[in-house]
Amino acid sequence: MGEFGIGQPVRRFEDRRLLSGQGRFQNDNNLFGQLQAYVLRSPHAHAHIRRLDLTAAKTMPGVQLIMTGDDLVEAKLGAMGVPFQRKRPDGSPMFARGHLGLAQGAVRYVGEPVAFVVAETVAQAKDAAEKIDIDYEALPSVTDTVDAAEGRIAVWPDCPDNISNLFEAGSKAAADAAFANAAHIVKRRYVISRVYAHFMEPRGAIGVWDPGEERFTLYADVQYPHRVRQALATRIFKVPESSIRVIAGDVGGGFGTKGWQYPEHRLVLLAAKKLRRPVKWTCERSEAIQADEHARDNVSDAELALDKDGKFLGLRVKTFANVGAYISSERNLLATFGNVGTLVGTYDIPAAYVGVYAVMANTNGTAPYRGAGRPEATYVIERLIDDAARELGFDRVELRAKNLIPPSALPCKTALGLNYDCGDFPANQQKALEQADWAGFAGRRDTAKARGKLRGIGIANPIEKAAGPGQEFAEIRFHPSGNATLLMGSKSTGQNHETTFKQVLNEKLGLDPAVVQYIDGDTDRVAFGIGTNGSRSTVIGGSALWMAADKVIAKGKRIAAHLLEAAEADIEFAISSDGGNFAVAGTDRRISITDVAKASFQAARLPPGLEGGLYETGTFAPDDNTYPNGCHVCEVEIDPDTGALDIVRYVVIDDVGTVVNPLGLKGQIHGGVAQGLGQALMEQVVYDRESGQNLTGSFMDYAMPRADTMPYMEITSNPVPTKRNPLGAKGAGEAGTVGALPAIVNAVIDALAPLGVTSLEMPATSQRIWRAMRDQEPR
């Protein structure tokens, strides 16, 4: 193992460039002759457009083009659509309406794009947008998930109950039988609040049209460059994929929300084609929460069946998941169903049934956001176990320990159909309890009480379905000089991809990371890629790189055998302090991989019949998901006079399989916990229930965690490598968020329980905590 290989705490190679201001983020891109665009958005949550007059706006200085929905119809642009079909609860076909890109005849959420104004400057585009004369007929709206699920107001006249579709998992008959035989049944409703991914850099796009090649180029901060190209080509513009190039440079945060195709992408491209000039759109911070997809926002009615001794018998969950006013692609449904399987958690629950109702409302669409359904699932089961323990008089730690799946039972298929392959769930919990000094908590609670404080401790055993089936691509391209370029289909959005993949390359081939060029995010340079989502980059992208490296070694052995005048079977490849070398077994005769690469481009030095050059690709697709897991323990202290909360201790035991870079892993856990903490304690997108207006449109209204909010985190790995990929990795990017939500809220409820507080909806702000305490006081 070298200093840069797998398992080494290598500092990020990207940081020298990024921290010195040499990054190339979306807004750093500027093209000669570019125009500027502005999106005019709906001020209403629901309204008919009775009149849309552009006459005055078109005469404003600098205006080059104004597009409305009619222009998109005239251009015969398609909509994204959903490539699969589901049923509604009554068995009728799924109801889904995609967004064309600009409103047509009506608006259905605040912020819906209505007109696209292109001018010489942004200021001119904004001035012209103010002159667009629109007569709206305001209509009743519904933004609350439960209100929408009850069909109080229809978002679409032809779907009066607002239920788009029903997704089911598990066996209803088996679950019903388990509940019929239960000694105890515990029922609760859990509300998962709506949140939003605030990036360091809001979204943006530049569209370019090359009339000579009849080809589009899109510069955009997306997580799936190749999939965005495919969507634009096959679903929107209906042209060959080769007619579109997508370039994504440095991305200032993605978290899932920048993954897919947004309306502005097609708008800048169409405008560029019409005007024969590049068109740039940049989302402003104050615009972003109206422009982007949101996340979470579901309500779950959950019930747990137990026998008299506390053994889990069954689980039933009914979830209403708010998907917004439009279902423009499969992304809008992914988080509602993609991870319901993890509702059983790390526990032996013999029978389970889940029904997820996709509910349409006059809100932004929801889509995957760090964890993409796993934090919601883990929150429900871990809160439900705590509530069951409290209601039935069980110790919550012992109740978990009694029901955790033991390593000896793995692999196993759960009641919700997931195939857990490996892990040591009991050891995770035990290690976390020891590291957090759970046994000493009672004394700390008494000490806090003497100081006038309330102290609580919470625990959660998260598991997530990650890195599922789907291909990823890698290419190792040596040059005649002997150095190499690494091209990856995964797209970095702030994670240390360059560092991680260069470590894998160093582990396999011994190449010095300093002389390896790294490329991602360009569909013309990288042959293929699914992109970055679902903790898949290291697992699947790294495995594709591993396969490509194996091909390099195999071809290198043939060349080395020829150069060393030995049989190919006698050639070994090994890595030493001076890098990778091919050697004749049992001798000191050897040649470096760099020299073999040089020779591969010299026809006279190649064995007869061997194709020259040394550039190999790998495409890896796993047979099944991986299952990162762990245990989180959170300890909090609350001021009973103000409701102010401090997280005084946070412990994480994680199992992400093989750890490529422990330094990078801790960074991922830190970031994940921060986003879970934000949702648990302060973040929430709030709509006015009458008008449908977004009340949290800026950082004055939408609270974000700061440095003084974050606790010190004690993170320890307990890796059990998987055999589902050659690296043994399980995925790490979302693990922190999955465990943080329930661990923190469980700790808050534990602190308030002595006062009689048994429930508290997230976010657990100081005001909500204070109100919950006051509500328990004698009237």
Description:
- There is one protein chain.
- The chain has 779 residues and is of the alpha+beta class.
- 28% of the residues lie in helices and 24% in strands.
- It is built from 20 helices and 28 strands.
- The chain has a seven-stranded mixed sheet, with helices on both faces.
- Helix 11 runs parallel beside helix 19, helix 15 runs parallel beside helix 16 and helix 18 packs across helix 19.
- The radius of gyration is 28 Å and the shape is globular.
- The chain starts with 14 loop residues before the first helix and ends with a helix.
- The model has no long low-confidence stretch (mean pLDDT 95).
What's the layout of helices and strands?
Layout: H1 15-19, E1 35-41, E2 47-53, H2 55-58, E3 63-67, H3 69-74, E4 106-107, E5 113-119, H4 122-130, E6 133-138, H5 145-149, E7 163-170, H6 172-180, E8 184-195, E9 204-210, E10 215-220, H7 225-237, E11 244-247, H8 263-275, E12 279-282, H9 285-291, E13 295-306, E14 312-324, H10 331-337, E15 351-360, H11 374-392, H12 396-403, E16 412-413, E17 419-420, H13 425-435, H14 441-450, E18 454-460, E19 472-478, E20 484-488, H15 497-509, E21 516-519, H16 537-563, E22 571-576, E23 579-584, E24 590-592, H17 593-600, E25 615-620, E26 629-638, E27 645-655, H18 662-681, E28 713-717, H19 735-752, H20 766-775
Parallel strand pairs: 1-12, 10-11, 14-15, 20-21, 27-28
Antiparallel strand pairs: 1-5, 2-4, 2-6, 3-5, 7-15, 8-13, 9-10, 9-12, 13-14, 16-17, 18-26, 19-20, 19-25, 22-23, 23-24, 26-27
Helix pairs in contact: 11-19, 15-16, 16-17, 18-19
